[in-house]
Specification:
The chain is an all-alpha fold. Helix content is 82%, strand content 0%. It folds into 2 domains: 69 residues; 55 residues.
Amino acid sequence: MTADPPPPAPYVEDDRAATVGELRSIRRWLLVTAVWALAATALGAIALIQANKDRDDTAARTQSAADLARVQRDLAGRIDDLKSQVDGLPTSDDLTKLDGRIKDVEKKADSAGSDIDKVNGRIDDLEQRVDDLEQSSETQTNTTTSP
């Protein structure tokens, strides 16, 4: 007697593994974002410098320079964070290794399924032999007890 296997789990799009192309795309967009951040910093710096040229006040220049330095430090920190996040993403080699491991597991699962089928066949044969022995025993019992 074999039990039916459980139905497969419902497919949820968020549960699928990311492809190498998707990871490359994410990495590419993060780098594009970093370049845009640097360009925005440069434009901000140019705007601050131009504003400083328009002002004659030394205190305003000092404040603007301090603001510029603070903004640059903040953006540099953010860019470093983005770079470390990009560097922490899995590489195509990691994905290839994972794909290989998944294929190995699938092969082992298929092999286990065929082994289970063989064992079920043997169990069915044993059950049939037991039934035959019981019937033979009952027949011998009925023949020896009847006059």
